[in-house]
Amino acid sequence: MAAPILALRDIHLGFGGAPLLDGVELAVSTGERLCLVGRNGSGKSTLLRIAAGLIQPDSGERFVQPGATLRYLPQEPDLSGHESALAYVESGLAPGDDPHRARYFLERLGLSGAERPSELSGGEARRCALARALAPAPGILLLDEPTNHLDLPAIEWLESELQATRSALVLISHDRRFLETLSRVTLWLADGTIRRLDKGFGAFEAWRDEILEREETERHKFERKLVAETAWLRQGVKARRKRNQGRLRALIAMREKKRAERGAPGVVSFTTGEGDLSGKLVIEVEGISKTFGDKAVVRNFTTRILRGDRIGIVGPNGAGKTTLLNLLTGALKPDSGRVQIGTNLQMVTLDQRRDSLGPTMTLADALTGGGRDTVAVGGQPRHVIGYMKDFLFTPEQARTPVGALSGGERGRLMLARALAQPSNLLVLDEPTNDLDLETLDLLQEMLGDYGGTVLLVSHDRDFLDRVVTSVIASEGDGRWLDYAGGYSDMVTQRGGAALAAPERPRSKAKSGAPSSARAPAGLPARPTKLSFKEKHALDTLPARLDGLRTEIGRLQDRLADPGFYARDAKGFDQSVAALRQAELAFAAAEDEWLALELKREELEGA
Prior knowledge:
Elements: E1 6-13, E2 21-28, E3 33-37, H1 44-51, E4 59-64, E5 70-73, H2 85-90, H3 100-108, H4 122-134, E6 140-144, H5 152-164, E7 168-172, H6 176-182, E8 185-190, E9 193-197, H7 204-234, H8 242-260, E10 281-292, E11 295-306, E12 310-314, H9 321-329, E13 336-341, E14 347-350, H10 363-368, E15 374-377, E16 380-383, H11 384-390, H12 407-420, E17 425-429, H13 437-449, E18 453-457, H14 461-467, E19 470-476, E20 479-484, H15 487-493, H16 532-559, H17 564-567, H18 569-605
Parallel strand pairs: 3-7, 3-8, 5-6, 6-7, 12-18, 12-19, 14-17, 17-18
Antiparallel strand pairs: 1-2, 1-4, 8-9, 10-11, 10-13, 15-16, 19-20
Helix pairs in contact: 3-4, 7-8, 16-18
């Protein structure tokens, strides 16, 4: 490996209790692309701040090659002391840097530069900080969650910018697709130390699982040996025999090791309080529209959501994803059109703002509602401490104010609150914000096993691909279209075109900054006919429906025989099960045929 331009050697840092960083080593060479991964609370952001020179470790050495330039993107930037967003970005430029890059990056991130820092939202402040880090084209870029508060077009634009840069990169992100695209080396921070894999993030999870499996085997062997040696000790030790004295010292060392051992990493346990079965039709909207002022957010949108569907809603910031979600769930009335909500719905909502979490409320009170020590999970009482442990909170955190929790911990707390309630419709607005990769894995598995219906707004492409069965995507100008499959399937159906950022005129801008960077890309042409697969399905489904209808009639006639059960109880049960399967298959085929017929009629009438 080439000589490093940034190096951390034997870094130790603790805040009481077990050390957060315990002999960490980190080396970054010219043009190297590293991603730093680990559980929330493992010390990733702290390590990046040490690398940036913002925190002094308890011990260890930091080296930066003379003349090397370094820029750091914090999760919570401070823009105070600057008159405008442009002034803040320009303050990060060094002599000789191109001043036009400051305005270029601001505009590509949807800002004019004339904004006053005190008037920026948290997301806008982070985009300013990202522009400030990118503008100088530094030798080393340290980016802590750079995709937070970015929409999908901005994330994909940032990917292309970072792919083209010559800067060395150290990335922290929960966005798998982003890490897979950009990383060439993976650093895994766990138990206070770093393991290095000289491959990108795409190879990380298999490598990590292999290590964890090997460590679990070694831990199991150690436990067995400790039990055996303890049993030997209880039989008595002949102090005069040196061999037994050595064995005793070895046992004491094993016990010390056991006490010092951090143990296996905790695992989030997601259980949902599933409610009663909803009706087959969950939501049906026909021709709905919604306008705010002169801006059409939703224009003549029609869709049908059935029980068990997992729908992803995607689009640029400002396209109206949350508005569409509120229209679908009845929280907002459309200006025109019809919304029909199905029967027996038990809806639970997770909002992206987390407004319901008061900063002075304790973690335990946030889960129980206050004044109790139990939380109802699916209608069954559980002690709050046990439920907290399912989400990786310690008993000592029960009285911790919500305001003192990290972003990841607040995300887990909101999930814990939402998932405890009985539901058959989960409405999740940006549930992946601030969650670590392992928690995302478990949330994905939970949603895959969830028996109800899911409406999901997310900018996480990998998460969408893994979870949803169809996507509702913004096409601009208030138009929304349904696509079968996940995010990648949507891109394929659009002819390889990702989402285009809408033009966002900024009324607060006072400068003559060019706005070409915010002009929307051209939309791909809508399909004018059914695909070959769809046409084949439409041609063959009627025959399949006829066959299933005949089979259902045959089974119904057989079960109508009053003496059937007395003659053959086992055969009767088998016929009941077969009838149920045939009815389910008929309903699914009928829904597919109706959807294709509607699409055919729409295309022919266009």
